[in-house]
Amino acid sequence: MRNPSFSRLSLLAAAVGAVSLAAFALSPLRAAEDAVVIPPPAADIPASDGIQTVVLAGGCFWGVQGVFQHTAGVVSAVSGYSGGSPMNAKYELVSTGTTGHAESVQVKYDPNKISYGKILQIFFSVVHDPTQLNRQGPDSGTQYRSAIFTTSDAQKKAAETYIAQLDAAKVYPKPIVTKVGALQGFYPAESYHQDYLTLHPTQPYIAYNDLPKVENLKRLFAGNYQEKPVLVRSVSN
Question: pTM of the prediction?
Answer without folding.
Answer: 0.88
